[in-house]
Design a protein that fits this description.
The protein is mostly helical. The chain is built from 15 helices and no strands. Helix 9 (199-233) runs parallel beside helix 14. The N and C termini lie far apart (45 Å).
Length: 413
C-alpha cells in the first residue's frame, strides 16, 4: 500500500510538472514564459552554489554510519550551507545588477532559491535513508500541489494571470514541503545533534564533493546557458517557444528520476558496498531496460500528443517552431540513457569519468553552438545539446565498461 501511494504521489507530481508548462504557455505571453524559463534555470543552477553538491558525500556517509551519528553529520552539513549562503547570496545580486533578470523579481528569486535548496537536500536525504514515501510527499508539495493552485486561480481569475502569481504559488508549495520534511526527520529518532560541527569532516567531504561540483556546474551550465544563448540568438518571445518544448522534452528526465533512478541508485550503492557483484549487475541491467522502455514510450507519446496540444494553445509562434521539439527530444533521450552508466560509475565511487565527461560536454556544447549559430541560429542551441549529450553518453559508457571489467578481473584474481 505504501508503494502504491508512493507511486501515486510521484505520478501526480509528474503530471503537475508536465501540465504546468502548457498552462503557462496558454495563460502567459511567450515573453513571460521565456522569462519564467530564465528564472527557473538560474535558480536550478544557483542551487549548486548553495549546496556544493555536498550531498554526494553525505549520502555515502549516512549509508555507512549508524543512526545515532546522523544528526552530527547533518549538523555539519548545515554549518557548511550557512557559510555558502553568506558567500554566494550577496554575489547572486549581480544577476539583477547586470540586467540578466528584472529587479522586480529579485525578492521572489531569493526566497525560492533558499526554499528550493532546503527542500532539495531534504528530499535527497529522505531517499538515501529509504524514507521514499515521505520524500514523495515532499516532492509533491514542492513541485506538484502548488501547480494546481496556480492553474486554478488563473482559470477562475483571468486578470490574475501573471508570472508573479506562479512564483508566489511555487513559494507556498516549497514552504509546505519543507515543513513536512522537517517534521518527518524529527520523528526518526536521530541523535548526535549536540555534537559540534566537525569542520575536519566537512573539509574531507569537500575534497570529494568539489570535483563532482565542477562536473555538476558544467552540466547545469549547459541547461542554463542554453536559454540565455537562445534568447541572444533569437528573441525573448521565441525563447518562450524554446522553454515550452524544452519543458515538454525535459519531462522525460522527470519521469526517469522519479520512476527509475530514485529507486535504483541506493540499491546499486548498497550492492557495491557489500561486494555483491551479481546484485549489482542485475541492478544495472534492470536500470538500462527501464530507462530504454520509459524513453521509447515517452517519445512515442510526445509525437502523438504535440499536435493537439499546440492546437489547444492556439499560439502561431509555438506552431512555427515545432521543429525544436524533435531536436530537444533527441537530446534528452541521449542524456537519459547516459545516466545509466553514470549511476553505475557513481555507485562504485568512480567519479573521475563523470567529472571529465561533464566538463568536456560544456566545452563541446559551447563550440558546437557557436559554430552552428552562424548558419542556423534557431537550431544552434538544440544542435549543441545533441552533440554534447552524445559525447557524454559515449564517454560514460566506455568508462563504465572499462571500470567494471577491471573490477571483475580484480575479484577473480
Amino acid at each position: 500500500m505504501s508503494r502504491i501511494l508512493n507511486i501515486g504521489l510521484r505520478g501526480l507530481t509528474l503530471i503537475g510538472r508536465f501540465l504546468l508548462i502548457f498552462f503557462l504557455a496558454r495563460f502567459l505571453e511567450p515573453a513571460e514564459l521565456g522569462l519564467y524559463g530564465l528564472l527557473s534555470a538560474t535558480i536550478s543552477y544557483a542551487l549548486y552554489l548553495l549546496g556544493f553538491d555536498f550531498y554526494t558525500f553525505t549520502t555515502r556517509e549516512v549509508l555507512r554510519r549508524e543512526r545515532n551519528e546522523w544528526g552530527g553529520l547533518l549538523k555539519s552539513q548545515l554549518g557548511l550551507s550557512a557559510v555558502l549562503y553568506g558567500v554566494f547570496l550577496p554575489l547572486l545580486v549581480l544577476i539583477f545588477v547586470q540586467g540578466l533578470l528584472p529587479w522586480q523579481l529579485a525578492g521572489l528569486f531569493f526566497v525560492l532559491l533558499v526554499l528550493e535548496h532546503l527542500t532539495q537536500e531534504l528530499g535527497r536525504l529522505l531517499i538515501a535513508i529509504s524514507q521514499q514515501l515521505t520524500a514523495s510527499i515532499v516532492l509533491f508539495f514542492r513541485q506538484g500541489a502548488w501547480v494546481v493552485i496556480a492553474v486554478g486561480v488563473m482559470i477562475i481569475k483571468p486578470e490574475w494571470r501573471s508570472l508573479e502569481l506562479v512564483l508566489w504559488a511555487w513559494s507556498f508549495g516549497a514552504i509546505l514541503a519543507l515543513s513536512v520534511g522537517i517534521w518527518r526527520l524529527s520523528q526518526l529518532g536521530m541523535s548526535g545533534w549536540r555534537q559540534k560541527i566537525n569542520w575536519r569532516w566537512v573539509i574531507s567531504g569537500l575534497r570529494v564533493a568539489i570535483p563532482l561540483l565542477a562536473a555538476t556546474l558544467a552540466l547545469r551550465g549547459v541547461f542554463t546557458l542554453d536559454r540565455y544563448w537562445f534568447e541572444a540568438l533569437n528573441s525573448r518571445e521565441e525563447l518562450g517557444a524554446y522553454v515550452l518544448f524544452m519543458g515538454f522534452s525535459g519531462a522525460l528526465m522527470a519521469f526517469l528520476d522519479a520512476g527509475v533512478f530514485a529507486f535504483s541508485y541506493p540499491s546499486l550503492i548498497l550492492a557495491h558496498n557489500q561486494q555483491d557483484s551479481k546484485a549489482f549487475r542485475y541492478g544495472m541491467r534492470k536500470l538500462l531496460v527501464q530507462t530504454l522502455a520509459v524513453s521509447a514510450g515517452f517519445v512515442i507519446a510526445a509525437v502523438i500528443v504535440i499536435g493537439p496540444i499546440l492546437g489547444w494553445l492556439d499560439r502561431p509562434l509555438y506552431i512555427e517552431h515545432q521543429n525544436l521539439l524533435h531536436w530537444l527530444l533527441l537530446a534528452m533521450v541521449m542524456y537519459g540513457i547516459g545516466m545509466v552508466p553514470h549511476y553505475g560509475l557513481y555507485a562504485q565511487g568512480k567519479d573521475a569519468p563523470i567529472i571529465g565527461s561533464h566538463i568536456c560536454s560544456l566545452v563541446i556544447f559551447v563550440l558546437t553552438t557557436w559554430m552552428a549559430s552562424f548558419h542556423w541560429p534557431d537550431l544552434a542551441v538544440p544542435l549543441g545539446l545533441c552533440v554534447a549529450f552524445l559525447l557524454m553518453l559515449g564517454w560514460k559508457t566506455y568508462a563504465y565498461l572499462k571500470v567494471t571489467q577491471l573490477s571483475k578481473a580484480n575479484q577473480s584474481s
